[in-house]
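Justification of computing resources. Each target in the renewal requires a structure prediction run like the one illustrated here; the chain below, 112 residues long, is used simply to show the kind of job we budget for.
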Amino acid sequence: MVTALIGGAAVAAAAYAGRYGIQAWQAFKARPPTARLRNFYEGGFQPTMTRREAALILGVRESVPITKVREAHRRVMVANHPDAGGSHYLASKINEAKDTLLGKTRGGGSAF
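Resulting structure tokens:
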């Protein structure tokens, strides 16, 4: 008698677990799609930096206010600063991108 009771409880528990699993799977499939990973620009640097390339480097639009350019420059530079293990070449390109978007273009591009 006890064995039948334990067997019945096990079948009921398996049924409830299966029902919960099916409901969770349906809820997972019904959720709206989200952005998986951000797509990054795969190309190299151009010989003379354009506004488009500068915006891609800083992660902003080409027509963005000066304050947003400075915030984006700071954010990207903190992650790539040479004193924190970043590359001098990338730091110069980030600075060049900021100068290009702010309209402070220098003569010959980056130092490298």
